[in-house]
Every structure is written in C-alpha cells, then in structure tokens.
Amino acid sequence: MAGALAERVFVDKITSVGFSAPEVLERRPFRLQDAARYPLFPPELVELMGDLLTPEQQAEVAVAITVTARKR
What we know:
two-stranded antiparallel ribbon; 31% strand
C-alpha cells in the first residue's frame, strides 16, 4: 500500500480495517530525486521544489515506512 499519510494515521487506518499488531519495521528518507520517479510529482513540480528547498530538505521531503501487521 502506498500513500501520503502521517505514520500514526496510516497505522490507525490499517487497524480500523481489521489488522492488528502493526509494527513499523523500517523508516527511510524519501528524497526529492525519489519523488521525481512518481507521476504524482510532474517535472515542473520537482523543478520548483528543487529551487525552493535547501539541499538538506531535498534529502528528506518525506519518510517512507515499511509496516507489518496481522489480519484479525
């Protein structure tokens, strides 16, 4: 599953649809160059973000998580 949600909201949503014991296994930076690979981020937006964000901000525009859970 993929999406742009706060970690707590994501965990709450998967719990509400019947999963239990969610556990975040991994957190990793989602960089601007990673965003450029997705259609949600057209080239014009990536270019604008590159102009507006500092190199430090470009290195982590979001955090990608890997979660495991059990189906109830």
